[in-house]
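On clarity, I found the account of how folds are encoded harder to follow than it need be. An entry of this sort, consisting of the sequence and the corresponding C-alpha cells, reads as follows:
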Amino acid sequence: MSSMNRYTAPVEPAEWHVPQAFDTTFRWEYEDGRERLLNLYEKGKRQQWNASDRIDWSQDIDPENPSGLPDEMISIFGSDVWNRMNAQERTRLRHHLQSWQLSQFLHGEQGALVCTAKIVQQVPNMDAKFYAATQVVDEARHVEAYSRLLHEKFELVYPVNPHLKSLLDDTLRDSRWDFTYLGMQVLIEGLALAAFGLIRDFARNPLARSVTAYVMQDEARHVAFGRIALRDYYPHLTDKERDEREEFVVEGCYLMRDRFLGDEVWETLGLPVQECREWVDRSELMRVYRGSLFSRIVPTIKDIGLWGPRVRKAYADMGILGLADGDLDAMAIADEKFAERLGGPALPPAGAEA
C-alpha cells in the first residue's frame, strides 16, 4: 500500500523541492586529516548494520499502545480534555500521538540524508567528506527502519510538522557549509537524539525500543561529527559572522520547541486545539519534557563556542540554560552500551579493523 494511503491528511504534491545555490568543493590534499575526525570515520565504518537483519521485524505491537509508552508521556495527560475521554478515545490518541512522533523522526531522517549528502559536496576538508559519506548510509538506513515500522506496524503516517519543515528549509537554502552542520547535525539531530532517548528508556514494546536504540547508536556519532567540525571552525569567525549563527540557533531552537505542541494530532482527532495547546504550554510535565529534549543541544552549542548573550538569554527564557554543562561524551557512550545490551547480531568491537 502506498504511503499516500496511510497519511492522516492529503500530502500534495508528493515531492518537496528546495531551491539551492552553493559551491561544491573538491580537495586535492588527501593527507591532512584531523585525528579525532578520522577516528570517528573508522568507528562509523565499523558500526554499520543492516536494518533487515539486526531488527526482529516479526515482533508485534499492541494496537492499544503500539510503543508501550506510559500515559504520563502523553502531552495532554491529566488535562480536562484527557479526563473527558473514554477508553476508546484514549486508545486512538495513543496510536495517533505515537505515529505522529515517529513520523517526524522519519521525515527528520530524510532531511538528515539530504543534508549530509550536501555536506559531502560542500565541506572543504577531506576527513569530513569521508565521515559524512558514512553518515549518508546511516541516514538511509534510519529512513528505511522508521518507514518500515510505521508502514508495517503502525499503519499510520503524519505529514511533516511545519516547524520541522521550516528549519529544514532554512538549513538547506543557506549556501554556507557550516549552516548545514548547525541546522542538521546540532539542532535537528541533537533534539531528535534526546527524543529518541525518552522512547528508548520508557517504551515497553521491544520492537519500538530496539529500532530507536540502534538509531541512537548512530546518531551519537553524528552529533559528535558536528561538534568536531564546528569547534575547529568557529573560533575564526568575525563578530558579525558569529552573530548570524547565534541568531540562527535561537530561531531554530524556538522552532524545535514549538514542534512538540502536537496541533496536527488534536486537529485530526477533533479535539479542542486551543485548549490542548494551552495545557501543553503550561503543564509542568511538558516543561520538564521539553527541557529534556534540549539536553544534547545546549551543551553542544556551548562547546562549539556560540555562547553569546543572545543565545544565553533565549535559553534562560526557555528554562534550559542549566543544561549547558551536560557531559556529551558520557551520553554518547551510554547510548552505544544500551544498544549493545539489546542483543541482535553483534557489531565489530571498537578495536576491530575496518
